[in-house]
Design brief:
Three copies of one chain form a homotrimer. Chain A has helices at 25-36, 54-64, 107-112, 133-146, 238-242, and strands at residues 13-17, 42-46, 73-77, 88-93, 96-101, 116-121, 156-158, 171-177, 183-188, 196-200, 203-205, 219-223, 228-233, 251-254. Chain A is of the alpha+beta class. In chain A, strand 1 (13-17), helix 1 and strand 2 (42-46) form a beta-alpha-beta unit. Helices cover 19% and strands 28% of the residues of chain A. In chain A, helix 1 (25-36) packs parallel to helix 4. The longest helix of chain A is centred in the middle third of the chain and has 14 residues, at 133-146. The first copy, chain A, contains five helices and 14 strands. In chain A, the strands form three sheets. Chain A has a seven-stranded mixed beta sheet with strand order 2-1-3-5-4-6-7, with helices on one face. Chain A has a four-stranded antiparallel beta sheet with strand order 8-9-13-12. The B-C interface holds B 19-28, 30-31, 34-35, 38, 51-52, 80-84, 129-132, 135-136 and C 11-12, 14, 21, 41, 43-48, 64, 67-69, 176, 178-180, 209-213, 222, 224-226, 235.
């Protein structure tokens, strides 16, 4: 397809799903990828993306894309309405491919893109189960793209995929609680003014550079290693201290107010 | 060994264990596989097979075999009596290899096989720990088989392994609870009559095609993406609604009764 | 660097971290390793090393090194004071490389080494985040070492790293609770006299060879498959029976006392 900078082979396939760590889901997706693209390595980025919450997942995904090599193919599945009429889509955004459900998962990426083209995925000759599009539809498409197949061979047809234009550019909501109890927000730290504080559960938090810059047990927010504003407690757990989790709101307010 | 269709090299080694996701068990097994078969990729299918329950694990395993490529070698460890006199076994079933304890784990597969040959595994020159046969005995055998070694080199001697002929062809028991709270049974959906209902915790459940075909919050059963009858709740958790888990029974009854 | 037996390429990179299984940490480390050493396989040994406890983690790590191939590069991150002034270090110990924070994580290994050389790691031209040295500092160093780079290219400068000489040779403390509820201690079984008993939570435990050598439900200790004294219950959970976990003490006493 002319004008589309398909690389000869993707360096990596990156998995971003809410499959959870347990169970047979990720393994079957990897076997499906292997059948088509056996020599492209697969990296597990998130298997615990916000479960069944495409909006929160979308802002989380957007923050982690740059940590993966240029040319990577992202296979993304947070898909509470699998089996319904939501379309299967793909997007070529700034040199990377994204494959998954058309439910807003790529909205912040499209919003921030320098170059983007969007596609619908049509299933191939193999049967597609009603409940596991990750294995039967998205994985084959991602694997063909990773091999450098042209978009037609990959089952892609260019078109305007659903957009979610009422979503904000940054999401003032907790989008992930990590293993240490830190609360990642959908806010890029770079958009928060220096003279602002972050409010979580009614508590005003000031910005720090990192954990060791605040006293033991102190709560603060900082720019995490992927650019998101993240709420943390030095040697403690912010999720327990604030009793907040994925989907809960945060606020940015002026430090003077 | 004549008559045995050993492929030159297995495409994949597939792990099916109850090691759990945590801890050093799977990593050490992978290092043991790597020593012998460094270029055969390893896929984690289940690390959370029914813990210490070979019977439930056996019906779960049988449903997931077809999702893996022909010629794959399955390394299976659900082995509550490791260190006792239960034998170490291998089976060549319809073109795939299965390696593990002789405690019934391969019984449904043998029952449903078109072609099957069974073997005992004898340990090689390396010392075998009393508690970690997965690493010290099964992994080396699986790796040698994956490399296409002949059965003698792999420590295999053909013989009649223990059979569990009192087990049913399909198991009306919950064999797995997935990350979404869905209850997988040991029943293949294809053996359940159209006019039957599934009874779980005293509740009669009708069949649906998939989640989006029932109202939000409704319980139902459906044929999952691997052919098992699975109990689910649209946007909810069946494990919590029914307070049932691995080992609990289900019933198939006529819808007219 | 003369005198240093750098292998041309490491067979494996081994991950030993407290990142947890969830979240984007291990995936980003693997992508960072892949950028520099794409063809060296990576094995996940522990992602759940004792969280933020370098001392317990150190004795656990030491027991698992021999299960990995000679020449492996260990990337080790248990690093509660990341961002502070603790140095980044590497050690060449008996033919393997260890990379991580200079907080004692390699102390038992150094104590037991036949040959050891130690190094400080200096960051390269890429920016290093304040909170994720695993990805930005340790992974690049480990990957360069795995490729067989010389120590200068890898950012290493030989020097005396911090030692923790007040730590014991074996640690009479629980260092890991596994998925089965078994309590691993920091004690090598080989240092415990035959006529000794292990005391946990006030209960005296005798030694057994393995699970099937004691009655159902009985508590005992045994030499686990990596040489550590481990407390277990046949078909039960020692963590629940004794209500003990990581950091809790055990005692070795004479059976006659």
């Amino acid at each position: 397809m002319k004008g589309l900078d398909l690389s000869p082979q993707a360096p990596l396939i990156v998995l971003f799903t809410d499959f959870g760590l347990e169970g047979p889901y990720t393994g079957q997706v990897k076997a499906a990828l292997w059948r088509i693209a056996p020599i492209v390595p697969v990296i597990d980025l998130f298997a615990d993306a916000p479960a069944q919450r495409p909006r929160e997942a979308a802002y989380l995904l957007a923050a982690y894309v740059d940590a993966m090599p240029a040319g990577s193919v992202f296979l993304c599945v947070v898909d509470p309405t699998v089996g319904s009429e939501r379309p299967a889509v793909a997007a070529r955004i700034d040199g990377r491919w994204f494959v998954g459900p058309g439910n807003g998962l790529f909205e912040p990426l499209l919003r921030r893109a320098s170059t983007a083209r969007t596609f619908f995925i049509h299933s191939g000759p193999e049967p597609v189960s009603a409940s596991f599009h990750g294995r039967d539809l998205f994985a084959p498409a991602a694997a063909h793209l990773a091999k450098g197949g042209d978009v037609g061979e990959c089952g892609l047809v260019e078109g305007k995929i659903p957009r979610f234009l009422d979503w904000p550019d940054d999401l003032p909501v907790i989008v992930y609680v990590d293993v240490y109890g830190n609360l990642m927000t959908g806010l890029r730290a770079c958009i928060i003014p220096d003279d602002a504080v972050l409010v979580v559960a009614g508590r005003r938090l000031v910005r720090a550079r990192t954990f060791s810059d605040v006293p033991l047990g102190a709560a603060f927010w900082y720019e995490n290693a992927n650019g998101l504003a993240e709420v943390a407690v030095n040697r403690g757990r912010a999720d327990r201290l604030f009793e907040r989790g994925v989907g809960d709101e945060v606020q940015i307010i002026s430090a003077k107010s």
